[in-house]
């Protein structure tokens, strides 16, 4: 019974593994671009805070945080980790 379940679940586990492999590659390739964009937006935010409006500068700082490696990319990494844990749980059954 256990062998039949493993045979039935094999395509799902393979699809999850391939998806996480591709997404990890994309995340590692875009990390440099995101850090450059975050640096640029942070510098722009400080300039806006000094010259124009503090509120707009804070909004730009929030956007800079979201595109920094600690923002949305870290959320994507966390989700991929959970997906890999799910695939490992299925493999152990």
Give a structural overview.
This protein starts with a helix and ends with a helix. The chain is rod-shaped, with a radius of gyration of 20 Å. The protein has one domain (15-92). The chain has helices at residues 2-51, 54-67, 72-92. It is built from three helices and no strands. With 93 residues, the chain is mostly helical.
Supply the key terms.
rod-shaped; 93 residues; mainly alpha
Terminal Cα separation, in Å? 11 Å
What portion of residues is helical?
over 70%
Shape: rod-shaped
Unreliable sequence segments? none
Structural class: mainly alpha
Q: Spell out the helices and strands N to C.
A: HHH
Rounded to the nearest angstrom, the radius of gyration is: 20 Å
Average pLDDT taken over every residue: 87
The count of strands amounts to 0
What number of structural domains do the residues give? 1
Largest pleated sheet: none
Chain-wise SSE layout:
Layout: H1 2-51, H2 54-67, H3 72-92
């Amino acid at each position: 019974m256990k062998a039949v379940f493993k045979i039935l679940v094999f395509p799902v586990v393979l699809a999850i593994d391939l998806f996480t492999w591709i997404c990890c590659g994309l995340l590692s390739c875009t990390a440099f671009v995101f850090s450059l964009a975050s640096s640029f937006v942070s510098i722009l935010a400080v300039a806006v805070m000094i010259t124009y409006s503090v509120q707009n500068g804070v909004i730009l700082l929030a956007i800079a945080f979201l595109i920094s490696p600690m923002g949305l990319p870290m959320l994507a990494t966390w989700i991929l980790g959970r997906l890999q844990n799910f695939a490992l749980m299925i493999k152990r059954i």
